Amino acid sequence: MNRNKIALLFLGLLLLKSSVFAQIKKDAFAVTDDGYRLWLKYDPIADVGVKKEYQKFTQFIAAPSANPVVKSATDEVQQGLSGLLGKVVPVVLSAKGQSGGIVLTLVTDKSQDFANKEGYSIETVQGNIRVSSESEVGLLYGSFALLRHMQTLQSLSAITLRSSPKVRYRMLNHWDNHDGTIERGYAGSSLWKWYELPERIDPRYRDYARANASLGINGSVLNNVNASARFMSAEYIEKVAAIANVFRPYGIKVYLSVYFAAPKTLGGLGTSDPLNPQVQAWWAAKVKEIYQYIPDFGGFLVKANSEGEPGPQDYGRTHADGANMLAAAFKPYDGVVIWRAFVYKSDPKGDRFKAAYEEFTPLDGQFDEKVIVQVKNGPIDFQPREPFSPLFGNMPKTPLGMEFQLTQEYLGFATHAVYEAPIFKECLDADTYVNGKGSTVARIVDGTLHGYARTAMAGVANTGSVRNWTGHPLAQANWYAFGRLTWDHQLSSEQIAREWVALTLTKDKKANTQIVNMMLHSRDIYVDYNTPLGLSRPWTGVHFAPEPWQNRSSRPDWTAVYYHKADSVGLGFDRTANGSNALAQYRPEVQRQWSNPDSCPLPYLLWFHHVSWDKKLSTGQTLWHEVCSRLYAGADSVLWMQQQWDQVKAHINPETFADVEARLRTQHKEAIWWRNAWVLYLQSFARQPIPPKFKKPEQTLEQVIKSVDVYLLR
Ligand code: BDP
């Protein structure tokens, strides 16, 4: 062999070696992963056995029609299979007696007995995988379920899946403004590029729709509840219609938040009084105009007479008058009016906790059938932990929709890892006892308790323009969990987390268990360093920095001291009969759980009681010790989360790993900030030393206050 040949051989070996390495690297983490693909990754399946089995059923995709929604389904299955199995599977109109394919089947004879039209079933029939539904959109949901099944490497041979959504309107609420900002958004700017619309269609609109449809979400309110009248203008309706066109093939309807005073500010009328015939005619014409552009428009979401927004009460009318006036405009159409119950007046002597109940329960039975009243999960405002809103169960003649918040307004923005499914589940599973035991919030929301047909669940979105959609990579799980729960609120937090981790982060079982465990603890950890034992912090401001000392504002319920009521005696808000008596808004069975400070579960203690610093709690520690223990344990547990994450490094895409790792470091720093602020501030009331087993904060209270002041500088 001459020298040239040897050199060539050497070069060849070198190339082979480097390509083998490239292969190994590639196999482990298929592509660099910036998180854009969410849970729809469709990375190549490495398991040879699974792949072989899947080959048997993926020779073709048969779909009954060229309907755009069905086309979305076949496109997705095709895209999924191309990623998972690396092959292009042909789409045909009929299976024509062949086996070995995926067959989408519209069933018209109702033989399948689905709970509703959107339901689907998946099973093997004559050697094919048959996805059936009574509707096109059901086939789309079934296709996504099939892909989820395959992405999690489950067997196809004996597949039997059957599912129907429990709630009818499953929606995201975007608090996005026309200028591209997002109220309480921490993942970049708005996804909607209003200045480019309707001409330019950002490809991201479609990916947004795919992600939502994969979970069963079927509605999207595009703009902020603190709405601009601009969205009612012809110019914006056209822009909205362009987005609706992209969403339609994914079964998603668009909705708009409305500015109640639009007849005046946009329409040039002298009033926006809902009982004024001109105002009524203005809205009727506006709704008609919208339907000309968007024939399947979803409806309106309304924040009225809340936090300075205009509303019917400006004219001495009720929320029902306002809602019914809008509902009348929707009579010829399919749309609905979703009226928010998030209201609280400035009342120096009142308890904000009680406000929504006091304003809305007298109106039960007065709302038009097209109205859904949307209630936040808790009585105050998306706190890290709240008892369920006492409105649930107390308006049996009005469909009540659930409003959860996915964006982490009070949960550390995009630098704290907080898995929210336990927050949602805690509320949904809570028993209101309104019709005896088992009258859970979920059964009120899904309509089974009071027999509502129009049922709704909304989540204030955490999406934005950053590449990975949610800022914190783990926050994608909150979008995912919300969507899955709108479809089926009986799924457990753990089940959903397992699924999401397998789809999104790793196929390794041990790593999955470890990450899921960390996710399941993350909310309690956050509560411990942020609002332990039932503290809350909804005062006005940025909702990020600790400032329990904040005592000045235009109204008392926009101060911190209003909520925690720390004084030399103790801590917490007395909502028993001796105090504001908010507890009376719940059924006796619920009151009994919370009214006695000796037996009230500790997570709710300070929500309902002003507890003295020296009171011995069920843990055997005094309140002061318990508060310190929780604050310290919470902050320390973030270190534990860091360790847990570090241990799964080998199984996570390096980009995602590093991102989460860095955010956990920030979270730890900020958890200490919160802990120090609370401990030092509360100590000035408790007048007791910090228990010796805890390291004293390095800073003084003045220094912490200064650091917060600097943070809040404009
Ligand atoms: C509060 C937010 C505020 C929202 C309001 C609402 O701080 O930005 O406008 O809720 O839900 O949590 O209307």
From TrEMBL:
Keywords associated with the record: Carbohydrate metabolism, Glycosidase, Hydrolase, Polysaccharide degradation, Signal, Xylan degradation
Highest taxon, organism lineage: Bacteria
Name of this protein: Xylan alpha-1,2-glucuronidase
Alphabetical list of Pfam families matching this protein: Glyco_hydro_67C, Glyco_hydro_67M, Glyco_hydro_67N
UniProt cross-references to InterPro entries, sorted A to Z: A-glucoronidase_C_sf, GH, Glyco_hydro_67_aGlcAse_N, Glyco_hydro_67_C, Glyco_hydro_67_cat, Hex-like_dom2
Residue span, Alpha glucuronidase N-terminal domain: 38-146
Organism: Dyadobacter pollutisoli
Signal peptide: 1-22
Ranges for domain Glycosyl hydrolase family 67 catalytic: 150-469
Catalyzed reaction equations: Hydrolysis of (1->2)-alpha-D-(4-O-methyl)glucuronosyl links in the main chain of hardwood xylans
Residue ranges of every copy of the Glycosyl hydrolase family 67 C-terminal domain listed in the record: 470-692
GO terms for biological process, alphabetical: xylan catabolic process
